[in-house]
Amino acid sequence: MPRAAYLDWNATAPLRPEAAAAMAEALMRTGNPSSVHRWGREARRAMETARAQVAALVGAAPGEVVFTSGGTEANRLALGGLAGRRLLVSALEHDSVRQAADGAAAIPATPEGVIDLAALKRMLAEDERPALVSLMLANNETGVIQPVAEAARLAHAKGALLHCDAVQAAGKIAVDRAALGADLLALSAHKLGGPPGVGALIVAEAVPLKAVQTGGGQERGRRAGTENLPGIVGFGAAAAAAAERLQDYAAVALLRDEAERRLAAIAPDAPVYGAAAPRLANTLSLGMPGVPAATQVMALDLAGVMVSAGAACSSGKIRRSRVLEAMGVKAEAAESAIRISLGWTSSAIDIDQLVEAWGALYARTRASAA
Amino acid sequence: MTASFARQQRRPDAAPVYLDYPATTPVDGRVLEEMLPWFVEKFGNPHSTTHAYGREAAAAVEKARGEVAALIGAEPREIIFTSGATEANNLAIKGAARFYRALGKDHIVTVATEHKCVLESAEAMVRDGCRVSVLPVDAKGFVDPGRLEAAIDERTALVSVMAANNEIGVLQPLEEIGALCRSRGVLFHSDAAQAAGKVPVDVEAMAIDLLSLSAHKLYGPKGVGALYVRRRPRARLEPLFDGGGQERALRSGTLPAPLCVGFGAAARIAREERAAEAERLLGLRRRFLDRLKARLPQVLLNGDGERRLPGNLNLSFPGASALALIDACPGLALSTGSACTAAEVEPSHVLRALGLPEALAGASLRIGLGRYTTDAEVDFAVDTLAAAVRSMAGDERVTATAGRPT
Fold it and tell me: A276, A313, A348, A363: which one is catalytic?
């Protein structure tokens, strides 16, 4: 078996040691955080520590954190908990946002992979009804960082609220809810080194959010269900570690840029999507013209290199990326795009392995085409 | 870590005796051992099937799905993983009601003693234009199947009756209700969060169409549960969450592989050990009640004495305040009832449905025994409770005397 080179960090990240340690302790302890007895009270204290840690990662107040089962539920709660508003949803959003927003108008994107702010301004002005704008902070496929603060200013000027899906951005770049002007902000633990099965929606104090999942007064009535305490504690520890280690991404950026440079040297015709815009340091969306993404992913997999053909959620059945489509990438080109994403344990050896395997496939396809 | 090892580890003098198993259970050491690798070295996203880490996580999730299915006599593909029983109940009730409402069936039948999340989900559907019939229970906690049959009309979409009550442990006659629903062509949902793994639950024998499960109530991890959705005849739902299209498009979001693995392990252990463990718990329950009654003859048992979960007691201490009793017993981890609403001061809706007067409902404690409860813990708990009740009664006499105008 070839050595494993994990380069699919935007799908999920390994658990940080700090999170593992915190969870091991919480898993050994019994207590439903909503119970009134001593063990329940201890569980509640642990949960409140985690709440403060998650809040601190995004510059929020602990009371603004509503724990959920993950990013998808957080997005759903944001859009479903403010029903009745006109929805303006960016064309670059994750499926969990897009499909929770029935009948939403799509805010178009530029070829660089950035939301079109002029279009948003027009759309906000078109209709007087109160709107909810949904714009992600960093795209999961291209890594492009969106102008959320500007979008929020436009939204607020028209009495609209802004929801920001920060699932991919949090822990990779500094996030400050207030500076972004986001009224709601979605987070996922497992994308930043916490466990899967937990996430949060940050809800600014004044936002009148209503629960989607009902029956039990947990999370101040905003999300029913016994709290996933070990998961929440792990999320807190991971958030604290991520906040402390944002500088790790400087090294990640060097590795990603090196990969990009070497792949471009091998394949001058290979497009890098989103390269003209500010991007997450860890993400590389790359095409091999004429070679379907599935073929590339399989060849890389055989060489031990793990990447994806887009969002993990839909990569079981590989389909064309809606994100690239929204950027105006032609269907054939979009079908040959893969996503390479790095993290804090990625190494130069991982990059060597990627470049070698991808380069070999490129050479093979070019030879057979010749 | 085996169960007996864990039992030896628990000393009543070291930590409060845990008597709140219906609120949540500790993760069994064997479950934890199976889960841990999936947090750390095998961390792949089970939906990332383009590579080895993702595929091994996907395979582990599927194995767990099979184990959860086996616990209730279902097929693996009939199991939809959720974040817990609350989500499963929300999905079952709102999902079925929304789907069948579009076909002209807009009526839901449920019972007054259901968990809040069932009652509130049904209530939410009233706001969406559905009708809901909430049936009463008798003094022992049972719903009357005759009454249930009478409540079903030609527009009834769904009947929701829990398998075992979370406060009083009473087991509803699911086989009878299931047969009834099947014969009337109505979907039958049961919240089995408390029952599964503790008493036999079989979706075939009970003709159940939708069944909610929770891992952390059966020594698995928090944050994961499941909804059983029958395939033949097919139960139809509208999804609550949209998104990635996971779980037969009924529930999207990345599946937490370690939690699913833990749920599977917990389900397997529960299935293998259920019969013997139920016997053991019955013995402990008898010991608890006999010894407590010998000390405090005034104590009343709420709910039927026989057809209840083997580890459940719900007791009224006439004249005492349940919250004061909890405060007076720091050595015991106790609750008044549902943890979700435990912090609320209003008396249990379940006990009120049995016809208990408010004062008595406010004088009631739920005692939950479980996998790590020992004879010594039972004896310690009985001693502690009896002493607390007596001292509180004594205090009251003193206060009453002192307060009397002279």
Answer: A313
